[in-house]
């Protein structure tokens, strides 16, 4: 093996952005035939194969006409990083990876090791930070650096010694897909950065701070695009100068936004600036290229059935691959093991629902998709004839297409329909793209609606969709009701929650070996994007009809999967009936008083200005409060505050925990810094942003509820997220003052009290807790009394607070370290508390141990109502990751059962209110809380109905050992009602 040596002049260091490469290899593999993307047992391997091909190319030949002397493959350790600490919503909009990519992640790292390399990653940092650190160190040593990536965030690192190499993009798709072909590989230097960003690399961070990044959820400054940002930075020199002189800008809106969102721009700069001083375990010398040992690589390739790679490496090194056995560690890995464990009946043996479902799945996959054969229907008689076919097949798949925008802000452009495999069509209602479309024949909605209406409400014809909540609401807003409803994503979710994504593309790829078109294929992206109403009819037909075709093929297959997994009841009682309820809630929205938000924003601005002045006075100078470096210099170097913590890079930590500890020690500056961060977050995320979310047509905010986004059945809220509005601080609670009832009406808040603790008491069968809940006692005081042997009467509030922290912490698997940090006590004391807790309530420990054993054996856990939460990676060799999955599995039956109870309540409340002759309507669900709008004179009656339904929601399916408690109140605003 070649001796390790640090790089210097004449050397070239290759830094491969492994995390980015993984996804690009996956999407490129989607072009390939199935046989190249899966091992014989069904394990997806296509992305790993392409990844290995490229890494072998780097090792053997280099790239961009350069052969590396040093090579590093760098990955993201996890989604959590120091940026999340600064900005909780950083990358919060990212969706989970595709189903068939997840089991390939560990194989990617195994591939790196098979090549004799070390997969490099570090908790708390992103791959880009590690790349930045290596690039700086290598360039300082006189070596050349080639960063193998297409990530624009890395362009800030480019200089005379550091360049980027963008390999073939892998974004091409099959012919006729409408997407561009594979982009050729290219070298990126300073000139290419200037061409892309309009500034030199040293100014890239300032430009990104202004424009933000939708991919990473970096906010930036509203209304400023890349071109404008480059012009501004070119004119003023840097971001700080620009913000300091923003009042001199002539364009009014631009000036106002720069002044108003200055803090947001500074935060964005902190988020996009890479940390090039990460303390790394592997020095540059350890990246030295060594001669490849062919045997481990060939053994790995054989285990994954990579025949071409096996032969290529064997030929290149002159070895007989027939004498090398497949690496046994990778013969059973990824999806293969969980599938066998979860459904053992799929092996040969007597027929069972599972074996019948497997056979049915194989039969239902059907033939290939012929997008050119789809029909465009622009005639009423032809539409009626097409719909008549639905009566014969008993199924009608729907796929609405919106003219431009979201459901609540757009008219219908058209409707995709399918009645059987390959029998699909698109009905254009409105395609008026001006110069983009001329002489288009459509079937106006007012003519199509009377033909559609009888079929859409025919209970003998199942209506199915890949996005039924969207389709139901879009058609409802167009005056058309739809029933009965089925959703393929919810079927998949009920069967496989936690085992992958449930979107149409993922399901089509997984079950039909088909990659459907997406919006980008027909509408384009970026500045070239056009509204769907402007898409040529041929493309619109392929897109809309294909989605309906996918849904009609998947529906029977997934229905069989529900039977095989024994979760039909979950789908029929918890998913399907809730779908129209949520759609009507989204339609109703909640009234928001813009004036209240505006006043709050102004008040927050004044408060921030006051706090900043106080911070500068305490610090003795002005500085960038959002800068970790400047802040740490003030706190620990200038002021010399004790108790500071340094990271491994030698930099001081200024995270929330550090500031809270300093504040608790009586130092005034950290107190003000925490206050500044809190107010800044409230202003940018809520009082400013919510004003933009008010629908101009309704004056209301219409959130979107996601039903299949969590493993446990909890709903989530997006665009905007109304479930994260803070309530633990006085300033945060004020946000709810802006959510108001119209004149003559009241908002009602109905909130389950301690529902997860009640579920825990039932599941774990804890006599003390069960009796306390039954007697209506203070559960936290009782816990403190049981643990510390002190009477409930006259209890010190601090003791009760500690018991409360343990009660809720136990549900989420809190560690001694976590409890110590939360209560501000030593680890040993926190550990003693937890030990004493389990001694007083031994049933909880028994429940935890039994749950861990069950999930290891089955790969999933269940709620009280039969919902399965899958944890396919529970057997991971990584101890910290395994512990994480075990904690999640312990929590899932508790949180999932609570989520199921509130789902059951939501399904029952609407008919109960109607039966009582009340017009009260449900607006929001915030985890354990429901929000309603009621006429003022029926608020009391509505509260009575709501409370009765909620407290009995578990029955008759489950008779809880503890009573459910609901606190319901009415008020003029959400804050007043809560």
From TrEMBL:
5'-3' exonuclease domain ranges (all copies): 11-290
Subunit and interaction comment: Single-chain monomer with multiple functions.
Broadest EC class assigned to this enzyme: transferase
GO biological process annotation, one example: DNA-templated DNA replication
Superkingdom per UniProt: Bacteria
Location of the 3'-5' exonuclease domain: 374-563
EC number(s) given by UniProt: 2.7.7.7
PROSITE patterns: DNA_POLYMERASE_A
Keyword Cytoplasm: no
InterPro entries recorded: 3'-5'_exonuclease_dom, 5-3_exonucl_a-hlix_arch_N, 5-3_exonuclease, 5-3_exonuclease_C_sf, DNA-dir_DNA_pol_A_CS, DNA-dir_DNA_pol_A_palm_dom, DNA/RNA_pol_sf, DNA_polI_H3TH
Keywords: DNA damage, DNA repair, DNA replication, DNA-binding, DNA-directed DNA polymerase, Exonuclease, Hydrolase, Nuclease, Nucleotidyltransferase, Transferase
Job description of the protein: In addition to polymerase activity, this DNA polymerase exhibits 3'-5' and 5'-3' exonuclease activity.
GN (gene name): polA
Similarity section: Belongs to the DNA polymerase type-A family.
Name of one Pfam family that matches: DNA_pol_A_exo1
Annotated ranges, domain DNA-directed DNA polymerase family A palm: 732-938
Name used for this protein in its record: DNA polymerase I
Native source organism of the sequence: Acuticoccus mangrovi
GO MF assignments: 3'-5' exonuclease activity; 5'-3' exonuclease activity; DNA binding; DNA-directed DNA polymerase activity
Reactions catalysed, as given in the entry: DNA(n) + a 2'-deoxyribonucleoside 5'-triphosphate = DNA(n+1) + diphosphate
């Amino acid at each position: 093996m070649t001796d390790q040596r640090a790089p210097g002049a004449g050397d070239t260091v290759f830094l491969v952005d492994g995390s980015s490469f993984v996804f690009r290899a996956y999407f490129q593999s989607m072009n390939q035939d199935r046989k190249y993307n899966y091992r014989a047992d069904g394990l997806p391997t296509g992305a790993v194969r392409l990844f290995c091909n490229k890494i072998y190319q780097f090792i053997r030949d280099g790239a961009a006409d350069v052969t590396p002397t040093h090579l590093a493959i760098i990955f993201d350790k996890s989604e959590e990083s120091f940026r999340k600490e600064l900005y909780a919503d950083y990358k919060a909009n990212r969706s989970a990876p595709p189903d068939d990519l997840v089991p390939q992640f560990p194989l990617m790292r195994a591939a790196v090791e098979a090549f004799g390399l070390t997969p490099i990653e570090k908790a708390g940092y992103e791959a880009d930070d590690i790349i930045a650190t290596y690039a700086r160190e290598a360039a300082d040593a006189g070596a050349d650096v080639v960063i193998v990536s297409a990530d624009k965030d890395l362009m800030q690192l480019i200089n005379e010694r550091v360049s980027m190499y963008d390999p073939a993009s892998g974004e091409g798709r099959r012919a006729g897909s409408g997407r561009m072909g594979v982009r050729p590989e290219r070298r990126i230097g300073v000139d290419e950065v200037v061409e892309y960003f309009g500034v030199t690399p040293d100014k890239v961070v300032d430009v990104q701070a202004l424009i933000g990044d939708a991919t990473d959820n970096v906010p930036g400054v509203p209304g400023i695009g890349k071109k404008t940002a480059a012009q501004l930075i070119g004119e003023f020199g840097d971001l700080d100068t620009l913000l300091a002189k923003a009042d001199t800008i002539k364009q009014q809106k631009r000036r106002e936004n720069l002044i108003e969102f200055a803090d947001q721009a500074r935060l964005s700069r902190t988020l996009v600036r890479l940390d090039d001083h990460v303390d790394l375990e592997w020095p540059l010398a350890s990246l030295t290229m060594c001669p490849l040992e062919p045997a481990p690589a060939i053994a790995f390739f054989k285990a994954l059935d990579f025949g071409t790679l096996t032969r290529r490496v064997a030929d290149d090194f002159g070895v007989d691959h027939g004498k090398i056995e497949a690496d046994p560690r990778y013969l059973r890995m990824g999806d293969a093991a969980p599938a066998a464990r979860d459904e053992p009946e799929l092996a040969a043996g007597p027929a069972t629902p599972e074996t019948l479902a497997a056979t049915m799945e194989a039969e239902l996959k059907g033939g290939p998709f012929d997008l050119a054969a789809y029909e465009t229907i622009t005639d009423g008689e032809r539409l009626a004839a097409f719909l008549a076919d639905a009566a014969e097949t008993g199924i009608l798949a729907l796929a609405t297409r919106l003219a431009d925008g979201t459901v609540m802000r757009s008219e219908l452009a058209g409707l995709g329909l399918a009645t059987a495999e390959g029998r699909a069509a698109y009905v254009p209602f409105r395609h008026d793209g001006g110069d983009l479309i001329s002489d288009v024949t459509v079937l106006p909605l007012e003519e199509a609606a009377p033909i559609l209406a009888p079929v859409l409400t025919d209970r003998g014809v199942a209506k199915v969709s890949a996005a039924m909540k969207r389709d139901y609401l879009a058609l409802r807003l167009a005056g058309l009701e739809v029933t009965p409803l089925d959703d393929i994503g919810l079927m998949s979710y009920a069967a496989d929650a936690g085992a992958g994504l449930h979107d149409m593309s993922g399901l089509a790829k997984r079950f039909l070996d088909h990659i459907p078109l997406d919006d980008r294929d027909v509408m384009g992206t970026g500045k070239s994007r056009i509204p769907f109403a402007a898409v040529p009819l041929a493309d619109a037909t392929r897109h809309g009809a294909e989605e309906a075709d996918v849904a009609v093929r998947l529906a029977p297959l997934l229905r069989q999967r529900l039977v095989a997994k024994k979760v039909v009841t979950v789908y029929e009682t918890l998913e399907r009936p809730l779908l129209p309820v949520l759609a009507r809630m989204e339609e109703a929205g909640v009234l928001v008083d813009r004036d209240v938000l505006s006043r709050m924003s102004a008040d927050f601005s004044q408060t921030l200005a006051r706090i900043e002045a106080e911070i500068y006075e305490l610090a003795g100078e002005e500085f960038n409060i959002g800068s970790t470096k400047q802040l740490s210099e003030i706190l620990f170097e200038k002021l010399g505050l004790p108790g500071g913590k340094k990271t491994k890079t030698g930099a001081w930590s200024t995270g929330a925990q550090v500031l809270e500890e300093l504040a608790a020690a009586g130092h005034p500056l950290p107190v003000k810094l925490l206050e500044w961060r809190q107010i800044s977050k409230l202003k940018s995320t809520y009082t400013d942003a919510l004003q933009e979310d008010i629908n101009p047509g309704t004056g209301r905010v219409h959130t979107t509820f996601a039903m299949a986004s969590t493993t446990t059945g909890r709903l989530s809220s997006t665009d905007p997220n109304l479930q994260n509005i803070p309530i633990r601080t006085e300033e945060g609670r004020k946000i709810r003052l802006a959510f108001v009832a119209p004149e003559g009406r009241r908002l009602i808040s109905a909130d389950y009290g301690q529902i997860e603790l009640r579920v825990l008491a039932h599941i774990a069968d804890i006599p003390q807790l069960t009796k306390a809940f039954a007697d209506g006692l203070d559960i936290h005081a009782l816990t403190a009394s049981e643990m510390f042997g002190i009477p409930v009467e006259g209890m010190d509030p601090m003791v009760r607070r500690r018991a409360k922290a343990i009660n809720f912490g136990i549900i989420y698997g809190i560690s001694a370290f976590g409890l110590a940090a939360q209560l501000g006590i030593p680890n040993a004391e926190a550990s003693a508390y937890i030990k004493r807790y389990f001694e007083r309530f031994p049933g909880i420990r028994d429940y935890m141990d039994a749950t861990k054993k069950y999930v290891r054996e089955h790969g999933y856990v269940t709620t009280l109502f039969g919902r399965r939460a899958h944890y396919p990676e529970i057997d991971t060799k990584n101890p910290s990751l395994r512990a994480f999955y075990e904690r999640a599995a312990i929590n899932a039956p508790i949180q999932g059962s609570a989520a199921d109870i509130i789902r059951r309540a939501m399904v029952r409340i609407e008919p109960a209110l109607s039966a009582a002759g009340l017009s009260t309507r449900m607006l929001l669900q915030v985890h354990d809380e429901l929000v309603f709008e009621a006429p003022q004179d029926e608020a009391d009656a509505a509260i009575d109905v709501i409370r009765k339904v909620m407290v009995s929601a578990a029955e008759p399916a489950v008779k809880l050992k503890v009573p459910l408690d609901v606190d319901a109140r009415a008020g003029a605003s959400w804050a007043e009602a809560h």
